[in-house]
Amino acid sequence: MKLALYNTNPAWGGGERWFLDAASALEARGHEVVRIGSPGTPLFDRWGREVCTVRDALRAPGAALPDLVLANSGREVRTALRTLSRSAQTRIVLRRGIDRPLRDNWVRRRSWRRLSGILVNSDATGRTVREALPWFPGDRIRRIYNPVTLEARPRRTDSSAFDIGAVARLVRQKGIDVLLEALARTETTPAWRLTIAGDGAERGALEEQAARLGLADRVEFRGHLDDVARFYAGLDLLVVPSRYEGFGFVAVEGALAGLPVIASRASSLPEVVADGTTGRLVPPEDPSALAAAIEAVAGNVDLAGRYGQAGRERARRAFSADRVYTELEAFLGEAARWLPVRDSHGA
After folding, report:
1. Exposed (0-12), middle (13-18) or buried (19+): which is 33, by Cβ within 10 Å?
2. What is the pLDDT of residue 64?
3. What stretch of H or E contains 70?
4. CA-CA distances (angstroms) from residue 89 to 26, 202, 290, 337?
5. Fewer CB in 10 Å around end: N or C, the chain?
6. What is the pLDDT of residues 75-86, one digit of tens each?
7. Per-residue model confidence as pLDDT tens digits over 274-286
8. Which CATH number is associated with domain 2-147+321-344?
9. What pTM does this model have?
10. Are 331 and 338 in contact (CB under 8 A)?
11. Residue 287 and residue 96: Cα distance in Å, rounded?
């Protein structure tokens, strides 16, 4: 099967990581993969010489068209539709990778009726799509989790502090401000230290917040890390305090590293963290609840160990690359045979 993976997002995030890895995985399974990007974007640069523009992929004279285009956004769906000739038999699937509200407007309906299917990366995102677009057939919306791999390193045990970590872009969505407020409210937690990996527009404001709360000497902003496995190996607890999520790569990575994970009960995170089994879930934007959960885990070494072990076993089962790419390959094969929704369901 000839597949085109189409992503022109100007930023780098979990979705771009997914497209980068999926292209290689599908190629390794014997498919011809065309990578469509936009010059100057992070994914375009990482794809290197193999990447092309949408016109080169879908309108090049004499070139065989792909059987299916997997698009990252509604904008790319519309561009692909404009670029393909009306007689083209290429199917289009949208990948929806974030649980955010959708509006059922005429622009979206006009283009999404020409999709063969929608791929979502969590049940939460699938529910959002179904509720917003009741006319889109539910059997054409398929949930396939993101694959997550991590070469976990032996945990470091030479620290006298209880090491808490967070890995996130420093933007409001990720809730690092809530984590700082929660730590300022802890009373019974052993001597703790927080290390934050990642960077972003709110770094300065978060550093000021830590100082204002009297936490500056216990919080380190580490910036971007290349070796995240080494970072996890130095932690006792991972916190994911997001207000909403696309998937929650970090929560799965923490579980694979054998860490207990405390996360917000938001978007897809309850599908990643089993409350009371692999960690704790708390309401988003609730620093008091987050503080209580941190104290409960930090004050019980046996409990933290049980959470970490259960989380690793669950993550290996649910998010293995082999399982995920087998499901993805099967879905894309089905979608390539389906007619567009408007032609098969009268939507």
Report:
1. buried
2. 87
3. strand 68-71
4. 21, 46, 51, 10
5. N
6. 999 999 999 987
7. 999 999 999 999 9
8. 3.40.50.2000
9. 0.88
10. no
11. 30
